[in-house]
Amino acid sequence: MILDLPLVLETRRNHALEHATIHLLSHKHPGKRMAGHSNPTGFFLFGDLTTQQIWESATEARMRLNAGESGLAVHPGCGTNMATTALLAGTFAWFPLRGTKSTLWRLALVPFALLFALAGYQLSKPL
Fold first, then answer.
1. What is the C-alpha separation between 91 and 36, in angstroms, rounded?
2. What distances in angstroms separate CA 63 from CA 29, 75, 95, one per listed residue?
3. What pLDDT does residue 67 have?
4. Rounded CA gap, 19 and 102, in Å?
5. Which residue, among 1, 2, 73, has the nearest Cα to 38 in the 3D structure?
6. How does pLDDT run across 103-117, given as a tens digit for each residue?
7. 109: left (phi over 0), alpha (psi -120 to 50) or beta
8. DSSP letter string over the chain?
9. How far apart (Å, rounded) are the C-alpha atoms in residues 65 and 27?
10. Is residue 61 within 8 Å of 38, Cβ to Cβ?
């Protein structure tokens, strides 16, 4: 499976650690804006934080993830999650409209497209 490929698996692990670190930093430093990027070799954060603050939070995040706090691995403000949601909702909304050429038919199918988009939105939620 594609999710088990080494580069993908390492990126996913680092992405989880990035999210957990941002969760902890957000609680310790409310109101500070931050963003991150993960890849197979690690992750980096953007924001007005010291290396020491990030190191301490990343160390704690790793311990808590290893202890089973899997909820830290998903962050509601994650760009990847937002992109996945938009892609699935848009694709699902396109299905009922794809075979019609008439504008009148497309307008009539808009409610179905909205229902399909809602289904795509629900399916995009992290497990």
1. 27
2. 20, 18, 44
3. 97
4. 46
5. 73
6. 898 899 999 999 999
7. alpha
8. -GGGSHHHHHHHHHHHHHHHHHHHHHHHSTT--EEEEEETTEEEEEES--HHHHHHHHHHHHHHHHTT-GGGG--TT-HHHHHHHHHHHHHHHHHHHTT---HHHHHHHHHHHHHHHHHHHHHTS--
9. 16
10. no
For 111, the token pair is 């409610």
Cβ burial, residue 16 (10 Å; 0-12/13-18/19+):
buried
Q: How many CB atoms lie within 10 A of CB 19?
A: 25
- Global pTM value: 0.75
6-28 and 51-66 are packed helices; what angle lies between their axes, rounded to 10 degrees?
120
Residues 6 or more apart whose CB falls under 8 angstroms from that of 28 comprise: 53, 57
Phi-psi region of 81 (alpha: psi -120 to 50; beta: other; left: phi over 0): alpha
